[in-house]
Give the backbone structure.
Amino acid sequence: MHEDIDWTALRYTAVNASKNSYSPYSNFSVGCAALVDDGRIVSGCNVENASYGLTLCAECNMLGELFATGGGKLIAFICVNAFEEVIMPCGRCRQLLQEHASKSFIIETPKGMATMEDILPLAFNSEDLD
Ligand code: THU
């Protein structure tokens, strides 16, 4: 299954999203993209605010697109900066991503491919609410 993932298309989509970033305060553009279990690719960029703490990370906006276009589970994910370098999602965004990650979720990191368990071990999730 992982062999079928078109990482070039995902990276291209993330880079394109990063170009639409609204980040006048940090000057740090972020773009991300994910492959959904029905074959869609969804993406997002960071959107900052004069009230700094209200900044929306690229991943938040990507999840908005995920649900606005029909929902589903995330199969593969990549996040990049303005130099087209792969970066890691922040801690909050790892929590957001794990809520919608498929069992086979895989992320490209600066150190290679990783699973959700690798990047957010012992996560709090919906099962903890049972
Ligand atoms: N940022 C993201 O969009 N995603 C992350 O996972 C890390 C941080 C954004 C937030 C802020 O606009 C900028 O990067 C600098 O922190």
